[in-house]
Design goal:
Shape: globular
Radius of gyration: 20 Å
Oligomer: single chain
Structural class: mainly alpha
Strand content: under 5%
Helix content: over 70%
Number of strands: 2
Largest sheet: 2 strands, antiparallel
Mean pLDDT: 77
Order of helices and strands: HHHHHHEHHHHHHHHE
Length: 329
């Protein structure tokens, strides 16, 4: 095989990994959003914090068992581990808690629309932290998504201030998580499994304390459907999917850019947006709101086209300087 053929094969392999990691993340993100909405709204589970703790526990147990069975490997705990991973644990728990809180308080169509603000935040953070600049076509698609989300929010007949605050904080933590995750992965100190394990481990005790202090642990303890097999199955599925989602986020961020990971998460919301009009029973239809949602969806499709239409989509980004970490889409 000639050198040119080998290079083409390597490029094709990289492109396939980019596509598959993005699809894996999209499917995982879609599934956990629907399951979380069912648990928190359809069943009326009172504590999104306890659900988040369940997801952290599942991640710790799965990775601990996998390491003991030598399926995966990551560095053992040492005094400097927290310094190597900081500030990811704080970002991780903020992303999880406010994401679950927003899912509980808002209808899925409005939740997904407002989640698109995380794309704009990620684009800005990538510029100033990673030193990468999106092309004009990428910027246009991002602004189109955000405009549609604003239009939909202007006529949200089920407006919930707490839900809006939660989802906007979730957007901020999602953007910072994607960018800092990329930096930590590039440093190769803990690896993808180490990042997942220690993110959950370091925030488990603070998460339990917060749930106890706010009364969420007691509310969850007195919840009446714990013996309902269907509810219990979906609760456990949500916990396991928390691990699967974390893994898919890391894979997608590793093979793509932080901005791509964020937007793929919003692309799966195309399905969630329309399915959410019938799941949960808390969406109130209006034409103005519906048009805004669809503009945001079209913006997502435009981004997908301009990003993945050619194999050399890495040209979408250009580093601002050679001494900064570079990222390709």
């Amino acid at each position: 095989m000639s050198r040119t053929q080998q290079e083409e094969l390597n490029e094709h392999s990289v492109f396939v990994r980019k596509i598959l990691s993005a699809l894996f993340y999209a499917v995982a993100s879609f599934m956990i959003t629907v399951v979380n909405k069912t648990v928190l709204t359809s069943y009326g589970f009172p504590s999104f914090q306890v659900l988040g703790i369940g997801q952290m526990v599942a991640t710790i147990l799965v990775l601990f068992a996998a390491k003991k069975l030598k399926i995966v490997s990551f560095p053992g705990f040492e005094l400097g581990t927290f310094g190597k991973i900081f500030p990811l644990p704080l970002i991780f728990v903020g992303n999880m808690i406010f994401g679950l809180g927003g899912t509980k308080e808002l209808s899925l169509p409005m939740f997904t629309a407002l989640r698109r603000f995380s794309i704009l935040m990620t684009m800005i953070l990538e510029l100033y932290i990673l030193g990468v600049r999106p092309s004009v076509s990428v910027q246009f698609s991002v602004y189109m998504m955000v405009f549609g989300a604003v239009l939909a929010a202007c006529n949200d007949l089920a407006f919930n201030l707490q839900g809006y605050v939660f989802v906007l904080l979730n957007d901020f933590f999602t953007a910072t998580n994607g960018v800092y995750m990329k930096k930590k992965l590039e440093s190769k100190e803990l690896g993808k499994y180490g990042l997942m394990f220690y993110n959950s481990l370091f925030m488990l005790v603070p998460g339990l304390f917060l749930a106890f202090y706010t009364g969420d642990l007691e509310a969850a303890y007195h919840f009446g459907d714990w013996l309902e097999p269907l509810f219990l199955g979906q609760f456990l599925l949500s916990c396991v999917m928390g691990f699967v989602l974390s893994y898919s986020v890391i894979l997608c961020t590793m093979y793509n850019s932080a901005l791509t990971t964020t937007i793929i998460g919003c692309l799966k919301n195309i399905c969630v947006t329309y399915l959410g009009m019938v799941i949960g029973g808390d969406y109130i239809f209006s034409w103005f709101n519906f048009v805004g949602l669809n503009i945001s969806v079209v913006g997502s499709l435009v981004y997908t086209y301009v990003t993945f239409k050619v194999k050399d989509a890495g040209a979408t980004y250009a580093p601002l300087s050679s001494d900064k970490p570079t990222t390709v889409v």
